[in-house]
Design brief:
Chain B: Pfam families: PadR. Chain B: This is PadR family transcriptional regulator. Chain B: InterPro entries: Metal_resp_DNA-bind_regulator (IPR052509), Tscrpt_reg_PadR_N (IPR005149), WH-like_DNA-bd_sf (IPR036388), WH_DNA-bd_sf (IPR036390). The complex is a heterodimer of chains A (about 220) and B (about 110). By secondary structure, chain A is mainly α. Chain A has a two-stranded antiparallel ribbon with strand order 1-2. Chain A starts with a helix and ends with a helix. Chain B has about 110 residues and is of the alpha+beta class. Chain B has a single domain, classed as Arc Repressor Mutant, subunit A (Orthogonal Bundle), CATH 1.10.10.10. Helix content of chain B is about 65%, strand content about 15%. Chain B is built from 5 helices and 3 strands. In chain B, strands 1-3-2 form a 3-stranded antiparallel sheet. Classes of the chains: A mainly alpha (about 220), B alpha+beta (about 110). Chains A and B meet through helix 3, helix 4 and helix 5 of A and helix 2 and helix 3 of B.
Chain lengths: ~220, ~110
């Protein structure tokens, strides 16, 4: 497991020690920091752990999260972000590559499995148009990238707002997500048979998929 | 405003480095020590942006270690670079501290010394 993931898991356990009020303030801060994609993830998790440890001890001494983070938690969080190191390019590359390989791997592996299952009931056509496949993967990645940035932005703008505003933001983010998904489906439907067609056995798809997934896991592990 | 916060940052940095120099500490310990010294306003959340800034500049470094109470904590150590920086800030501060505090008492005491 990556060191960063260990920190995240430890954070999940330790947060249970907070009382309701402190937990709310802390989780807002956590969401705000984690959805900032500019900062180094590991450094971000380290400071979140520091703050959580501090808050747990302060709580035992009868202090509140408000006393720790001041009157404006957002201002405080911005001050932290300003002083955190930015995400290393190496990590951005490894993370993106692992996502792309993972996505392609899942696609190939499920295609293989599905055609195996379907083949029990009727003959299947295992041919696939490479152009359509490529276009589909590209659009998924583009939509995922734009979608995540937009959705994170909406969430970040509402983190420290009242509950009602938060819900509005989540609904808005959900609609964006749905629209993005619809775009991918539309593209897939419009360009069904595009480019050269290859025909492979189901187990070959499965094998390719598993290899890609293994590479994806490896790259994720290399990122910090 | 810029100069004011600049000045404050320098003083904060020096205070935190001076505590870390004495003994490596983790966040909560640091805030307790600052409070005991008589600086309660910079003791709580304020220390974390300072710790991040000092780390970014290479003046301190953090290391996970088991704490006295048991669980692992991130302890902060002063680096050689931080040592040099602290000495410089301390020298500058000591040079201005006395005349400035005398001036800011505003009893006109500084005129008598002329």
């Amino acid at each position: 497991m990556r060191k960063t993931d260990e920190l995240i898991e430890e954070n999940n356990h330790k947060r249970e020690l907070l009382n309701v009020e402190n937990e709310k303030v802390y989780e807002d801060l956590l969401l705000y920091l984690r959805t900032d994609l500019r900062i180094d993830e590991h450094a971000g998790e380290e400071i979140l752990m520091d703050l959580l440890d501090h808050l747990v001890e302060a709580q035992e001494d009868g202090k509140s999260a408000k006393e720790l983070f001041g009157e404006s938690p957002q201002k405080y969080a911005d001050e932290l972000i300003e002083n955190l190191p930015s995400q290393k390019r190496r990590n951005v590359f490894l993370f993106s590559a692992s996502q792309v390989l993972g996505l392609t791997g899942w696609f190939a592996a499920s295609f293989g499995m599905i055609s195996l299952i379907v083949s029990f009931f009727r003959p299947v056509d295992n041919s696939i148009a490479l152009g359509s496949l490529l276009l589909m993967l590209l659009s998924v990645m583009l939509v995922a990238f734009v979608g995540v940035s937009v959705i994170f932005k909406i969430i970040r703008s509402s983190v420290f707002q009242a509950e009602k505003k938060k819900w509005q933001a989540y609904v808005k983010a959900g609609l964006y997500g749905a629209a993005a998904f619809a775009c991918v489906v539309l593209i897939a439907w419009l360009f069904q048979d595009f480019g050269p067609v290859i025909k492979l056995e189901w187990w070959l798809f499965l094998l390719i998929g598993l290899v890609l997934l293994a590479f994806s896991k490896l790259m994720y592990k290399w990122s910090e | 405003m810029a100069l004011r916060s600049q000045l404050l940052k320098g003083v904060l940095d020096a205070c935190v480095m001076a505590v870390v120099e004495e003994q490596p500490v983790y966040g909560y310990e640091l805030s307790q020590k600052l409070q005991a010294i008589g600086l309660p306003d910079i003791s709580d959340g304020t220390i974390y942006p300072v710790l991040l800034r000092l780390q970014k500049n290479g003046f301190i470094r953090g290391e996970m270690r088991p704490s006295a109470s048991g669980p692992n904590r991130k302890y902060y150590f002063l680096t050689d670079q931080g040592q040099a920086e602290l000495e410089q800030i301390a020298a500058e501060w000591l040079e201005i501290a006395k005349p400035v505090s005398q001036l800011l008492k505003r009893g006109g005491g500084y005129e008598k010394d002329r």
